[in-house]
Amino acid sequence: MSIGRVNTWKSLAATLALALGIAGTAYAAEPHAQGTELLRTNCGGCHQERSGHFDRISSIRKTPEGWLMTLFRMRQVHGLNLDDPTREALVRFLSDTQGLAPSESAAGRFALERRPNAQDLDLGPELGVMCGRCHSLARAALQRRDADEWRKLAHMHVGQWPSLEYSASGRDRPWFQIATETLPAKLQALYPESSAAWSNWKKHKIADLSGDWVVVGKIPGKQDFFGTARIERDAAGDYRARYELADVDGIAFPGESKAIVYTGYEWRGSAEVNGRIVREVYAVSEDGDRISGRWFEADHPEDGGEWLAVRDKGVAQVLAVLPQAIRAGTVTTVTVVGTGIASNAGTVSFGDSTTATALERTTHSIRARVNVTAGATPGLRVVAAGAAEGKIAVYKQIDKVDVVPGYGIARVGGGKTPPVTAQFEAMASTRLPGGELLSIGPVRASWRSAPFDAEATRTEDDKFAGHFDQRGCFLPAGAGPNPAREYSGDNVGNLKVLAVVDDAGRSVEGGGHLIVTVQRWNNPPIY
Fold first, then answer.
1. Residues 35/27, Cβ–Cβ less than 8 Å
2. I need a surface site. Which of 35, 48, 139, 501 has the fewest CB within 10 A?
3. Where are the beta strands (DSSP E) in 285-339?
């Protein structure tokens, strides 16, 4: 994979989040008629049309990213040149008319949201070997075909990559025979082109997302945040949002976003928040009242945060209690975020053995100083603000620390390919009187790495592979060759991750595993 092709991927992937958000009003007014004409004009030269049905194209369903990748392949392999508005309109049309229902895309959303270190789908050993050796199984799960189309996909793989059977250990089995004779029926059973879920979703009334929303979110390794979003719909049917957000210390960071909602629920946006440009990959709930997902930097998809927006209907509900745990014998500032909580008069309750003072109310939050008695029994407490309820944990000490993720991957960087960092968190638990562990959430820790095994000790991996910052982010070294290493090797490494938490003078340690590996040259929207 050349650097030029990597940069082309970046350009096309950016289209999905940015330029696609400004498709023309004519297409929005008549999507089916205009979309069919676009297919006829730009795709009909190779894909035969029969009464509006285009060979290969019309018998496949994909996510917006899937269709974007198809158009990229048409450009790279077959020389299809599309201007930005045409490409944008084709992706919109195909996603809306040949997309996936929410229940169909749910299992593979981690790949759309570019979640780092996510566990891939388990589809059994055969599919894991046949498909998962080259790309995530989520990529297969995020498309729908009948058996004949799955078979054609196998033929296309061999035709485009003739050495496929001899790479990725494929010679350990009759790959082509399995791919063309056994797997098509299995894949059709798992991911059929025709389904009740899609038939029902096409009849679903698409919600207008315009209005006021309450937002809560989390940035791993950093602080939680909350605030509001005002979403407006433009004449073309796309959306613009204005954000007023703040972290738990009250530091404000406003923002704006422009987005398309594909297939009636796939929010794809480009936002500028506090001067930082990020992509938004969210899913809208079927009732149109919740928007959830992940945002991330374009060049560093591993660097992002969680997002939940709930339509403000005035219904009393708690969306978040920040922090999620308080220590016995201390006074802590706690923020309760929700809808319909501003009008709840009286004192907010944080449960047994607690007292709340210095209440500060805004429309969507309550801030209080919570005093927990020294003899409080560890466990969950109900946070009550009138009719709205949430949960908060009370603990006396930290009994266990888990490093999350337990297994992470970072990649060295160099040239035009940026490094891939790895963010870890120290997740603490306390032991309840009955012996069971109760999670009390992320805590501050001191971070360091060490060689994972004897070979990593011999090659001094912890010396060359990179280092941790104070928030648990591993920053990999630059790519090699490095003349200081054996055989002038790359700055890769096999490392232990060690997090040490100071719990009122006691040290509690947790550990994980980190692989620092080589650059990723092919970085498509669905890995």
1. yes
2. 48
3. 290-296, 304-311, 317-322, 325-327, 331-339
Q: How far apart are CA 123 and CA 131, in angstroms?
A: 10
- pTM (whole model) above 0.85: yes
Helical segments of 250-321, H only? none
Using CA atoms, how far residue 382 sits from 351, 355, 378, in Å, is 6, 13, 13
Q: Is 424 helix (H, G, I), strand (E, B) or coil?
A: coil
Same CATH fold, 318-395 and 211-311? no
Q: How many CA atoms lie within 13 A of 143 on its CB side?
A: 25
Into which CATH architecture does domain 211-311 fall? Beta Barrel (2.40)
Which two tokens mark 125?
A: 């050993």
User: Cβ–Cβ contacts within 10 Å for residue 379, how many?
Assistant: 15
Token reading at 40: 């006829």
Instruction: Identify any residues that bridge with 368 across adjacent strands, giving them in sequence order.
Output: 334
Tokens representing residue 356 in the block: 């709340």
Residue type, 386: G
Tell me the residue ranges of DSSP E strands in 312-460.
317-322, 325-327, 331-339, 354-361, 365-372, 379-385, 388-395, 400-404, 407-411, 422-423, 425-431, 437-443, 446-451
- Domain 400-517 is of which CATH architecture? Sandwich (2.60)
Question: C-alpha distances in angstroms, 144 versus 125, 182, 307, 317?
Answer: 21, 17, 28, 38
Give the tokens for residue 37: 């004409």
User: Using 50, 70 and 90 to split pLDDT, how confident is the model at 113?
Assistant: very high
Q: Which two tokens stand for residue 128?
A: 């894991």
Q: Any idea where the domains of the chain sit in the sequence?
A: 3-200, 211-311, 318-395, 400-517
Q: Flag the least confident range among 162-166, 343-347, 428-432.
A: 343-347
